[in-house]
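Input sequence (297 aa), recorded before submission:
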Amino acid sequence: MGLYADATALLMNLTAPLTVRYGDALQLVRDEVDDPSTWRVPTRHGQVRCFVYRPRPGRRAAPSTPGAYVHLHGGAFLMRHAAMDDFFARWVVATTGAVVVNVDYDVAPRHRYPVAQEQAHDVLRWVQEHGHERDVDGTRVVVGGFSAGGNLAASACLQARDAGEPPVRLQLLGVPSLDVSTPVKPATIPRPMIDERIVGLVRATYFKDAARRTEPYASPLLADDVSGLAPALVLTAQHDALRAEGDAYAQRLSDAGVAVEHHVVPGQDHYFLDPGDLDQARHWMQVMSEAILRALD
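Predicted structure, token format:
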């Protein structure tokens, strides 16, 4: 695919603010949370911008120094658009009292694997080590993400374990991409959101080096050992082409003795938070925020 793939990825990145609008209908607590401030967090690939959401004073009984939820948005490793998950960052702040760090990591075609995975790990580690400098309890941290962000969250947890670093309280993996080595994903419905074209584009751009696609930090499902990882909340969707790898990873974690809560969202494709069914979306958002709250408390 070569230059055509890179050009397509670049166009998707540039147009993401116009095309990725599913979160607009999911802004259930917009007025309860102030707009985010910005942190510049050092990583081995330069500074990474993070959008930081904080609870308003007096909005919710919480420790004087709140814990943190480090969030990694989706976008197929092609769309650098952290605001796509602004709705969820606000929801977590409003329902848990945590500080949310929404990471604006680098994407293809300007950057390729393992840049985003290493940035995710470095930001997570920085929050744990330096959070107290920003009025955040770095000993109480959850990491999570949706789709590509679920891959980054799982990868960051593997990297932290392998480096002997303190584990986070919880890894939240929403419809995660966990095996980029496989070019064909099983589909149970016509015209799934994640099709062979998207999978091929991701592999041709961000995971361009085919020899590295089986590395555990690229494809966490293929890790030789998943023991000793943080407890996990895994949400997969009934008709999602990525469901099989998410289900398999949840089972592997459980078999390795990791505490796992796994839900399959019925009737949904990859956008498991259906903007057309706010009752359903609210339910699953509540499932996630309650898990974050339990972990931080």
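Checked by second reader. The two ends are 48 Å apart (CA to CA).
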